[in-house]
Amino acid sequence: QDTTLDAKYKRRTSDARPYGDLYQMLAYCTALGLPTVHLVYADGDQSRNYVLHRAGTRIHAWIVGQPNPTQPTSDILNQVGDLTQHLLDNAEHT
């Protein structure tokens, strides 16, 4: 199954819903016929899943750059590598 991922160079906070980003991902799902997509933020409070029941869409919002987006590049790259491995390991289940 194809995996679609969009990366945002901004902070996602738990008290603010990223409606524009979610709408964009829903458009990707609709255009590509995908039930699941992944949204990656450069910073934020916590990863989160959004389920749009009527559309049959699941959006996974991930955070890299935790606990500090100014940490060494190698640490952030390790987080990206871990996320990539997680997506590859779970590609059959999404």
Features:
32% strand; alpha/beta
Provide a descriptive summary of the structure in words.
- Helix content is 33%, strand content 32%.
- With 94 residues, the chain is α/β, with parallel strands linked by helices.
- Strand 3 and strand 4 form a beta hairpin.
- It starts with a strand and ends in a 5-residue tail after the last helix.
Concise overview:
The chain is of the alpha/beta class. It has helices spanning 19-32, 73-89; strands at residues 4-12, 36-44, 48-52, 57-63.
Estimate what percentage of residues fall within beta strands. 25-35%
Radius of gyration: 13 Å
Helix content: 25-40%
- On the 0-100 scale, what is the average pLDDT? 84
Helical region count? 2
Low-confidence stretches: none
User: How does the overall form come out from the CA principal axes?
Assistant: globular
How many strands appear in the DSSP assignment? Answer: 4
For the termini, the CA-CA separation is 8 Å
The side-by-side strand order for the widest beta sheet comes to: 1-2-4-3
Which structural class do you get from the secondary structure elements? alpha/beta
Largest sheet: 4 strands, mixed
Query: SSE order, as H and E?
Result: EHEEEH
